[in-house]
Amino acid sequence: MPLPDDNNQYAEAFRPTTVLLLPAFQFLDHVKPSDVPELISSVINAAPTTTTPFNDNGKAEVDSMTPPESASELPTSAEASDIPMEEQQNGTIAPASQIPPALAADFAARPCDHRAVILLCSHRTRDARCGQSAPLLRREFERHLRTLSLYRDAQDERPGGVGIYFISHVGGHKYSANVMIYRRKSNEDGSWGGGTQGIWLARVRPEECEQIIKFTVLQGKVVKPSQQLRGGFDRERRLISW
Fold this sequence. Notes:
The protein is of the alpha+beta class. 21% of the residues lie in helices and 23% in strands. The protein has a 7-stranded mixed β-sheet with strand order 5-6-4-7-8-9-10. A 3-stranded antiparallel β-sheet has the order 1-2-3, covered by helices on one side.
């Protein structure tokens, strides 16, 4: 995530940043390296995961999702969380009153109002391919999203748009360019619910960005499943495969 504007006042080892927690769709601001252990134990471990069941009526479901035979068994976040399941299903995390004192001084949590996020592997240390392709894809994704008035950055709180962010290594340089898309559920009243779907695409080319936005980002469909689909999850359908 982009560093805060005032980050230069901190030494590098203490420099804060913003974390995007998925599929909770929450921004965690002013996170310092020293905050990470407490952040994981108190906030991240209590947040919904890709295997947390999701339904429309908010009724708690404590059974785990059933992955395909090719996928390994993963625990649900209910096994590691004391937060009510209906909060997990709606993609929320602990309110400010529950934030540990060790984090409360600077740390802040706020909702991410994007309807979807596009994550681009931009790692270039081990292999330059992702580092070279990610800026090209970002430019194309942003261009097409702006045409639809859907482009948003981390500070744009208008609901319903799409954010584009660089991430580090996700494995598989030979699959470059790697693109991960997280989508939220659209509610009947026009609002956006918790994150329900994630789609991991490989070998994405700039000329394919427009179709990926039209079908994958906005509709949850994969254009070239046999060539590009590396994995994903669907919390409503209780499917997961990596």
